[in-house]
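Appendix C. Worked example: Transferase
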Amino acid sequence: MGKNYVDIENDRGEVLRYRKHANGRGLIAHGAKVHPTATVELGAYVEPGVRIAEGVYVGRGVWVETDAVIGPDARIAPHAHIGSGAAIGAGAKIGIRANVGTGARVAVGSLIGDDETIRDGEKVATDGRGLRSAA
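Step 2, the predicted output written as structure tokens:
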């Protein structure tokens, strides 16, 4: 039986230990909290201090940086990037290769399309069609 963790050296020469999440085998850093009902696909990275709620889906190749918060039932499509300290509301959908900046806020139920960028600190709410309004 193989080991259930991976050690990775960061840019500062520090070695971080990541465990493989039971649902999807994505890598979860020590200090991150991921609900057991969440799915974190293989190739996704969840950094220290992140909190992922129940029913969340995190696709392949997603990078969730430190201290981000993902609300219940949110969906993060493959290859998206969630910046440090960002917050994704319950039921929000983040598109393929979307980039949510540091400290950004995406409101409950919002739809962020493929390849969209939410700037650092920006607050976004969308309607069901993905049209933005001030949050």
